[in-house]
Design goal:
By secondary structure, the protein is of the alpha/beta class. It has eleven helices and five strands; from the N terminus they run ββααβββααααααααα. The radius of gyration is 19 Å and the shape is globular.
């Protein structure tokens, strides 16, 4: 069955009408957050309320290539039950499908696999979504959970702040794959506080319209660095180190009591 508005088409199995309506209403209520941050609006977004059973492996999934976003059908403990995952995935959808100029032509001819943002590192992809999910209110989202702050404080205390290499390749040591969300989200929060949230839209527009963005995985100085320099007048590594200096000052009094 389907519930539909101008922006979303929610697909669900019979019997889940209440949850589908909750998901749709919360997506509609909070959609302005990722739309404003990415600068992108897409109509008729397919949203699948997916049932993975009692122990789903994750909260949601977005496939820009196959044109859909999924939200796991389960009961959530937090307020705005489905919005936390729904807005996270909707941000992915809007961000990943941005394309302009020559990349827009490639995407039109060969499919959305050529959208430039797909070629961004995972800390970048998950960082902006962690940032948007944390804007629903002061108590929702991972940046408001307290765990991220505690982890960064412990990192400062133990002098083990993350390099951008660790954030990019996520070694097996803690926080493992969770580091994409932790480091990326905290980095975006710093950029928003220091330089203004409106810079994100400017960055995404430039990155999605540059053919050099495809080179970011191998030659970041031609792709991502070029865009950071254009928008922030500083390179990726310079901004990353600036963020770490800020974390040191922020958590200089942090202590671990055993």
């Amino acid at each position: 069955q389907t519930y539909k508005t101008d922006d979303f088409m929610v697909f669900f199995k019979p019997g889940y009408e209440r949850r589908a309506l909750t998901l749709l209403s919360e997506l509609e209520y909070f959609k302005y957050i990722p739309q404003k941050i990415t600068g992108n609006i897409i109509k008729n977004v397919p949203v699948l309320l997916e049932d993975f059973g009692q122990y789903p492996p994750f909260g949601g999934y977005t496939s820009p290539v196959y044109d859909k976003m999924e939200v796991v059908n389960r009961e959530y403990d937090e307020g705005y039950s489905f919005a936390l995952v729904g807005i996270h995935e909707y941000t992915h959808y809007l961000h990943l499908l941005m394309k302009d100029d020559f990349p827009g032509i490639l995407s039109f001819l060969f499919g959305d696999i050529f959208c430039p943002n797909i070629f961004s590192p995972l800390w970048f992809l998950e960082g902006i979504t962690t940032y948007t999910e944390s804007k629903l209110d002061r108590f929702t989202g991972r940046l408001n959970s307290g765990f991220f702050d505690a982890y960064m404080g412990a990192s400062v205390y133990e002098k083990k702040l993350p390099s951008i290499l660790k954030a990019t390749y996520s070694p097996l040591e803690p926080p493992g794959g969770f580091g994409y969300y932790l480091y990326g989200g905290e980095f975006f929060k710093y950029l928003a506080q220091k330089y203004g949230e409106e810079k994100f839209k400017e960055f995404f527009k430039s990155y999605s319209g540059s053919v050099f963005s495809y080179l970011s995985p191998l030659f970041p100085w031609l792709g991502m660095d070029r865009t950071f320099n254009e928008v922030y007048k500083k390179g990726t590594l310079e901004l990353w180190d600036e963020w770490l200096v800020n974390e040191k000052a922020k958590y200089k009094s942090f202590r671990i009591w055993w």
